[in-house]
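Why should sequence recovery work at all? Because a backbone constrains its sequence more than one might expect. Tight turns favour small or flexible residues, buried strands favour hydrophobic ones, and helices have their own preferences. The token representation captures these environments compactly. In the example below, the structure is given first.
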């Protein structure tokens, strides 16, 4: 039986023109115990100028660790999404994210299969994903880092499809980062799907979907970047928490919403349920 905690993906501050450190401080002020930063390769203007929450993996991982220590929060994981179907991108990216996570203190790196190449077949894509996940899992196993595979794209949009990706490589480093909103938008029952993966669960993206978005997009898309405030949409959070409490490890509900105001309402709602 696992404990359930509340965290927030730094997506909540993406439109607020905040630096990484500024977003960490704001998350702590709102009462979050955990955060999930975004990491990326290289350099780009907005992050360097302090107007964007992303952290470059060319930076010192201790930048992340020290910011968390200063704000009094912990890391639930790293949002390190890369297209597993494109090993020329994702293999070294994911391996670097794992090494970065080990140094900064994040127990999980989250990813998905990403958009597929235009010219490959489904069978070829699964061979390419197996290569990427095998290379990454060997690096993760040595460091005690989990890889959270998320339902988000063309192959993981169903329980069977997600299971097929998960089973490509037999490694204790592989787990599931379940996204409540993506699973719903794909047209499935998120509670039933969560129950199916609970023994492999390593992280949860707590994403609620508004009534309007549900009407407009359910069954038409495989996911969405951010949802509405938790408790203001279609997801049954009481049942989500009940299932997570039966998981084999502690689980952080990492809220994925689009604004600071939504993040504030989300934590107030989820804290009442917990």
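From this structural description, the recovered sequence reads:
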């Amino acid at each position: 039986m696992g404990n359930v905690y509340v965290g927030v993906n730094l997506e909540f501050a993406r439109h607020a023109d905040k630096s990484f450190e500024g977003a960490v401080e704001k998350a702590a002020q709102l009462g979050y115990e955990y955060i999930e930063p975004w990491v990326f390769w290289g350099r780009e203007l907005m992050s360097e100028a302090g107007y964007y929450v992303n952290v470059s993996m060319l930076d010192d991982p201790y930048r992340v660790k020290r910011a968390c220590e200063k704000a009094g929060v912990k890391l639930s994981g790293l949002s390190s999404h890369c297209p597993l179907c494109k090993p020329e991108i994702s293999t070294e990216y994911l391996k670097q994210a794992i090494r970065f996570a080990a140094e900064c203190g994040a127990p999980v790196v989250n990813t998905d299969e990403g958009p597929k190449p235009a010219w490959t077949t489904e069978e070829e894509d699964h061979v390419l994903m197996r290569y990427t996940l095998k290379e990454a899992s060997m690096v993760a196993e040595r460091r005690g880092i989990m890889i959270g595979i998320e339902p988000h794209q063309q192959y993981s949009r169903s329980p069977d499809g997600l299971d097929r990706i998960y089973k490509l490589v037999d490694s204790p480093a592989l787990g599931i980062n379940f996204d409540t909103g993506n699973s719903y938008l794909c047209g499935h029952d998120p509670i039933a799907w969560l129950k199916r993966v609970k023994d492999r669960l390593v992280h949860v993206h707590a994403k609620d979907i508004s009534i309007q978005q549900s009407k407009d997009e359910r069954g038409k898309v495989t996911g969405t970047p951010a949802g509405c405030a938790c408790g203001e949409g279609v997801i049954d959070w009481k049942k989500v928490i009940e299932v997570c409490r039966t998981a084999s490890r502690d689980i952080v509900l990492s809220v994925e919403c689009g604004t600071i105001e939504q993040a504030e309402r989300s934590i107030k709602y989820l804290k009442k349920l917990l």
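A few observations help interpret the result. The domain at 4-273 is CATH 3.20.20.150 (TIM Barrel).
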